[in-house]
Specification:
This protein has helices at about 30-40, 80-90, 120-130, 135-150, 190-205, 220-225; strands at about 5-10, 15-25, 45, 55, 60-65, 70-75, 115-120, 160-165, 175-180, 185-190. Helices cover about 30% and strands about 25% of the residues. With about 230 residues, the chain is an alpha+beta fold. It has 6 helices and 10 strands, in the order ββαββββαβααβββαα. It has 2 domains: about 1-55, no CATH class; about 60-225, no CATH class. The radius of gyration is 19 Å and the shape is globular. It starts with a strand and ends in a 5-residue tail after the last helix. The strands form 3 sheets. A 5-stranded mixed beta sheet has the order 1-2-5-6-7, with helices on one face. Strands 8-9-10 form a 3-stranded antiparallel beta sheet. Strand 3 and strand 4 (about 55) form a beta hairpin.
Amino acid sequence: MSLHRTETYNCPACGHAQEFMLWESVNAQVDQEMKEKILAREFYSQKCDACGETIQVMYTFLYHDMEHNYMVYIVPDSDPERQAEAISQMQEMFTTAPDGEPGNMMAEISETYKTRIVLNYNELIEKIKIFDNELDDRLVEAMKVISLGKMSESINDKTLTGIYYDDAAAGYPALIVVFDNDEAASIKFDTDLYESLQNNLLHLFDAHTPKGYSIVNYSWALEVLETTKPG
């Protein structure tokens, strides 16, 4: 089931007041059109009826895929305090009572679903592509850490702004490295490395993955991999 509401926003270009549909949740199977808009980066955008300017309104919502058993909650707030508050509220839905019993019905979902929190639009699209390709996002994040380590000398004079998994942007599955000058490089997805991490370190990632909604990104993987270093 998908949920949405309507709110009024003023066009930043001409001031025209216009209704904007805000989605509280998007079900990938029920609303395939909305999934396609998310992947096309059109989800948060709407044209002004008066001047034609594109209005973009960023907000939190839950993306739910019943076929692949995952839910992703996006919190794209630029205010750190509001972002932290929204994350805390979502995580509280998965609290566990002192006797070990789930704090509420939502806690049971984490037993069968992958539940993640992402902080921006790029991360949401990436999670969808990772999970739709039946990959483990924790292993993909670890691959990023290892891959960037190998190419550190070649990028030492550039400012890295992100690294994302994409299944088709380079014409093949790859890690896309993005720099601040809009330059990008691709690293072909290393299936052998993925399988090696799966065979040798999956238990470690399991031990460091909390129940309920969690943030699994590059920083998380770096911290987990640091625990494997001696001393």
